[in-house]
Amino acid sequence: MTACIGIIGAGLIGRAWAIVFARSGMSVCLYDVDASALGQVRDGIRQSLQDLLQADLIEDIEAPLSLIQTENDLAHAMRGVEYVQECGPEDIDAKRRIYSELESVVAIDTVLASSTSGIAASRFTNHLKHPERCLVAHPVNPPYLIPLVEVAPSPDTSEAAVNRTMQLMEQAQQTPILVRKEVQGFILNRLQGALLNEALRLFRDGYVSAEDLDKTVKHGLGLRWSFMGPFETIDLNAPNGVVDYGQRYGPLYRDVDRQRSDDDPWDTATLAALGQERRSQLPSEGLAERQAWRDRRLMALMAHQRHIDTK
Amino acid sequence: MTACIGIIGAGLIGRAWAIVFARSGMSVCLYDVDASALGQVRDGIRQSLQDLLQADLIEDIEAPLSLIQTENDLAHAMRGVEYVQECGPEDIDAKRRIYSELESVVAIDTVLASSTSGIAASRFTNHLKHPERCLVAHPVNPPYLIPLVEVAPSPDTSEAAVNRTMQLMEQAQQTPILVRKEVQGFILNRLQGALLNEALRLFRDGYVSAEDLDKTVKHGLGLRWSFMGPFETIDLNAPNGVVDYGQRYGPLYRDVDRQRSDDDPWDTATLAALGQERRSQLPSEGLAERQAWRDRRLMALMAHQRHIDTK
């Protein structure tokens, strides 16, 4: 028997999750408190499925579509559901209310997973009778194109809930990783933040243009990271592996770490200057088209990786 | 008339540069003080060219091979050369000696570019009569697979030398970026260092395994960076572009920045633990084979990107 999945919130992330589960043959019930939000859900999902079909990433549209239902009554929506993916607002009080309501309508062992990109699970589940089945399952947007999911339990979360979530994500062809202890921003956004903080300072202090900084990553640093990650990259970049690498290059990176200033790289003036350079390269009215381009590039990259892996 | 290029040092980087210039039709003279090092140069280059041919990245082996000469007499090697790519040891004193010798055998306007990955140009050229034609042109290894080149002038470098180097790199199908002011580690290694420093701390402090950290990048963060770079990525990740993004997520990244501890992430114990996990995934005797796998994956990725760009 395949899993039955409940999704809370029919915004962009909720709809993307519906595609993830349904394309792997799971039944999905997509709930939103706002009935009008549910009206156009099916059209949006159909369009995304068509894009995936065109990129050779799925074989059929009708089968996954037939597995997705929408519902605006919470108790109806959660009937028989064994895993809930919550995609509510990024607000602790709103989430606490949602989890209280959820607890009253689901079975005692239903896993409740949040898509939050920043809030630790304990902050919106420590008031529940059964916080042990709650955790974070943080996707990258959109999860049907980017497989990584950060599974981040709270101190209360049971091993069973963690294992069930990891298994389910693998069944859904996602790539789950385990965040072993609660930490703000989890792993992905902490790594992104570390690089962005340095990037903004280099841009702000006049060492490099925004365009050249992007080139440094897309034509340099980002190529190996797209199939190896940073630790394997350095492990293969010294004759005797990563310890050898650390002895050679550790002093340089230690200096970079110490030279880092304490000022705020996200100040208004820096953002305005970056915005100005970006808008001179890509006017505001071109953003939507470029986002569609990004998704096509991502789909082509995923198709390329799938082709390579099966060779 | 095509450019005539001199290369100092017939190690891995020097040989890789020879391939870069020769595949674009430029004549290359590869110099090494050690005549025995030159013996196997041609076989190594032929092998790399064969790999590129197999990956559909070049059309012919013999034409580039015929453009590469080797020489162990510096004055002979540098005759008629208009651009020198120096690939000597990463040692300031050694480089200062090399540049003094070079100055005595090349024309007054020959550009002298260093492949150094860490040393600012002023530190090994400020004793010369003509430091204005000296700069750094830092490649990523190997440059015939990864196109980025960091062009980093010293305060003495002339605009003409910078422009000549940028043009030459474009002719050679590389992607040059300009580092506007001297800075340790230039741009690429400062960005890599910022991410690695955070990655090592997350690993050391038990938040994540090394394997899961690599997955976070290769199945998440690194995918978009491989064709967009970090600034364009965030510019497309908020409805109204990068300023909007900064208002939404700046507070999170600012917190990440403030939470960063001052301890050394490259300490012996952390490196040993990372080495242990890496070696349990990939024993030492498998490193060379995995490096060959990495190069095949890189070649396939470059072929994929070329295919996409011409569509």
TrEMBL record, chains A, B:
The 3-hydroxyacyl-CoA dehydrogenase NAD binding domain covers which part of the protein?
A: 5-182
Bilayer-spanning residue ranges: none
Q: Where is the signal peptide?
A: none
**Entry keyword set:** Oxidoreductase
Question: What PROSITE patterns does the record point to?
Answer: 3HCDH
What GO terms in the biological process aspect are recorded for it?
Answer: fatty acid metabolic process
Recorded E.C. number(s)? 1.1.1.35
Can you name this protein?
Answer: 3-hydroxyacyl-CoA dehydrogenase
Q: Which organism is it from?
A: Vreelandella populi
